[in-house]
Amino acid sequence: MTESPDETVVLLRRWHQGDQRALAVLVERELPWMRNYVHGRLGQLLRARGETDDYVQEAMLHVLRYGPRFVTDNRDAFRRLLARIVENSLRDMADWHGAERRALRRERPVPSDSVLHLDRPHETVTRPSQDAERHEQEAWVALALELLEPDDRAVILLRQWEGLEFAAVGQRLGVAEDTARMRFQRALPRLARKLEALRSGSWDGAVPG
Fold this sequence. Notes:
209 residues, mainly alpha, Rna Polymerase Sigma Factor, Chain: A, 2 domains, two-stranded parallel ribbon
């Protein structure tokens, strides 16, 4: 019997509802595709670290457990979004500060009570609490951040996540303080545009092809 092309979406929804088995099946199902995609883009980085499957699987599990939760209406959309986030996660693993960031994310994961529906415009509705509204906003921003180009994402993470001064940001990025400040100022509008595209239901324009 041919498997439904949207079984991935079903598994994703089950995982968001707390089904641990669904997460394992989802990763197993998508790992071969993700491995091929990522290896084509990060082959040298992965070869330097070891077995591709191990690192891609670790990144997928990390993203699905601790990253912003989203649902889409089809498997291709899910793959495109997850591939971008996994790629960024693998880059983090290669960075010398990656372990610290992963530890922080485990301590302060994106709130799991907000599942973002990407295939329809986000509408403002009455929330049961200010916390729920804040959690949802955090999830939208976190997802938009994961879809930025690596340089933009890095400067925002260093400045906003780690709270570094621009001199320290520049030092981490290997650029002058003024250059780090300029990169940050340019990255913020790009983040805002990603966020607007996601919340409007036009997420396709927010994800590189």
